[in-house]
Design a protein that fits this description.
By secondary structure, the protein is α/β, with parallel strands linked by helices. It folds into 2 domains: 101 residues, Rossmann fold (3-Layer(aba) Sandwich), CATH 3.40.50; 71 residues, Arc Repressor Mutant, subunit A. The chain is 42% helix and 15% strand. It contains 7 helices and 7 strands; from the N terminus they run βαβαβαβαβαααββ. The strands form 2 sheets. Strands 2-1-3-4-5 form a 5-stranded parallel beta sheet, sandwiched between helices. A two-stranded antiparallel ribbon has the order 6-7. Strand 3, helix 3 and strand 4 form a beta-alpha-beta unit. Helix 2 packs parallel to helix 3 and helix 5 crosses helix 7. The radius of gyration is 16 Å and the shape is globular. The model has no long low-confidence stretch (mean pLDDT 85).
Length: 179
């Protein structure tokens, strides 16, 4: 995972929290450093601040999208819907508004979100999610997936009763909305 954030305190707290959750985290302080790090070592996810010195997050996102479909989560202090739309049009997979509370997203919920974000729009069966998120060969109850999805929705959805991001596909499983 690559965390790109020019604010040292946000960068370090985010990286520390993700490392404690079991993720390998590289960091970058600006857009140019982000591209160098991304080219040097492939990552599964990029957490990318929008307002960076030099190359901003939107420029970095466009450059990465030229050759890669790695999931990109944009961090922004901006709340204007237009800013979010521009970021998504540049190729970002989703937005997270600052400030955010990292300790609330458990490692399991983060892995669930990661797997869904890797292939937005694809329907994942409960059994496949058990395999991907809880490791190969896990013999758990598929209701475990339902509970994890509900907990994830509580943290990422504006209205848990009417989820727009993590959607249920009746009789099939779950998918991450593509828009």
């Amino acid at each position: 995972m690559l965390v790109v954030e020019d604010d040292a305190s946000i960068r370090e707290v985010t990286a520390l929290g993700l490392r404690r959750a079991g993720f390998r985290v590289d960091t970058a302080v600006d857009g140019r450093q982000a591209l160098v790090a991304w080219r040097a070592r492939p990552v599964d996810v990029i957490v990318l601040d929008v307002m960076l010195p030099g190359l901003d997050g939107l420029q970095v996102c466009r450059e990465i999208r030229r050759t890669s479909q790695v999931p990109i989560l944009m961090l922004t202090a901006r709340t204007d819907t237009l800013d979010v739309v521009v970021g998504l049009e540049c190729g970002a997979d989703d937005y997270l508004r600052k400030p955010f509370d990292l300790p609330e997203l458990t490692a399991t919920e983060f892995r669930l979100l990661l797997e869904l974000a890797r292939r937005p729009g694809q329907v994942f069966t409960r059994e496949l999610l058990l395999d991907l998120v809880w490791n190969h060969g896990f013999l758990g109850d598929s209701r475990l997936v339902d509970v994890a999805v509900q907990r994830l929705r509580a943290k990422v959805e504006d209205d848990r009763a009417h989820p727009r991001l993590v959607q249920t596909v009746r009789g099939a499983g779950y998918k991450l909305s593509t828009g």
